[in-house]
UniProtKB/TrEMBL annotation:
Domain UspA span(s) in chain numbering: 7-135
Protein name: Universal stress protein
Entry-linked SUPFAM superfamilies: Adenine nucleotide alpha hydrolases-like (SSF52402)
Lineage, top ranks: Bacteria, Pseudomonadati, Bacteroidota, Flavobacteriia, Flavobacteriales
InterPro entries: Rossmann-like_a/b/a_fold (IPR014729), UspA (IPR006016)
Length: 266
């Protein structure tokens, strides 16, 4: 495969599931021949919240030292294990401002987020997932904590509600090359898309569900039964926080489907 020079920016909190998220990112990078940058940002207030002025600088310096050491350890261990280069970086400051700076510096094709146990990267009044959907027009990956993609192993690829925007781009062709056959389609039907055409994909298996209060729970069960490791989702062009042609929000998809997601460009 030709080098497409894809760039992946991995946003990590360096907590419990950091290694899982980075390993999944490595798996993706190997499939599409991409560069990886790992970035961690922490609010100053989280570091200095309980410190007095005299000890705050000492605490901040110690936090710099510990953060740098932790990133280097993660990057070096995973790079050595899977023979892939990963650049690690971090910043202390306002989370969203620092992330925006990284988007400008690296101009990534894909931004990777990891799930938290309750809500993805939850912040006061907002979340990083919601923030990225507004600020970043490229592909967003939200990796499941419990279902890590394993580098050098084929994936079981699924698509939600057609995902025609994603399946038409070059990135999807690279992913399909590294996926098991057949691709599984999970379609939610309502009055808006009842007559929409099926995907023009060879040997695709399709499951159809009625849009109702139990649709996501039912799909989650089918994803598990079919061992889907990566689910492709399109953003609705008219409602970017919803999946295509439904009233279901991406936030609900992230919260209720325990599977890694790849969300299309805007």
């Amino acid at each position: 495969m030709e080098n497409n020079n894809y760039k992946i920016l991995v946003l990590s909190d360096l907590k419990k599931y950091a290694n899982s998220t980075i390993k999944s990112s490595v798996s993706l990078a190997k499939m599409i021949d991409a560069e990886i940058v790992l970035f961690h940002v922490k609010e100053h207030i989280d570091i200095l919240e309980r410190e007095n002025q005299l000890s705050s600088m000492r605490t901040l310096n110690e936090e710099h030292k510990n953060t740098k050491k932790k990133i280097n350890t993660i990057v070096n261990d995973i790079s050595k294990e899977y023979d892939v280069k990963i650049k690690g970086d971090y910043a202390f400051g306002k989370v969203k401002e620092e992330i925006e700076k990284q988007l400008q510096i690296h101009n990534p094709d894909i931004v990777v987020l990891g799930q938290r146990e309750s809500a993805p990267f939850k912040l006061i009044g907002d979340s990083i997932t919601h923030f990225m959907l507004k600020k970043f027009n490229g592909v967003i990956m939200i990796f499941s904590n419990e279902n890590t993609l394993i580098p050098n192993e084929k994936i079981a690829l699924g698509v939600l509600n057609g995902s025609t925007k994603f399946l038409k781009n070059e990135l999807s062709n690279d992913l399909k090359t590294h996926s098991k056959a057949p691709i599984k389609s999970f379609r939610i039907l309502n009055s808006k898309n009842a007559n929409s055409p099926k995907l023009n994909e060879e040997k695709m298996v399709e499951f159809v569900f009625e849009e109702n209060a139990n649709a996501m729970a039912t799909i989650s069960s089918y994803l598990q039964k079919n061992n889907i490791s990566l689910l492709c989702v399109d953003r609705d062009k008219n409602k970017p926080n919803n999946i295509t042609n439904t009233n279901i929000s991406l936030k609900e998809v992230v919260r209720k489907l325990n599977v890694s997601l790849i969300v299309s460009e805007a």
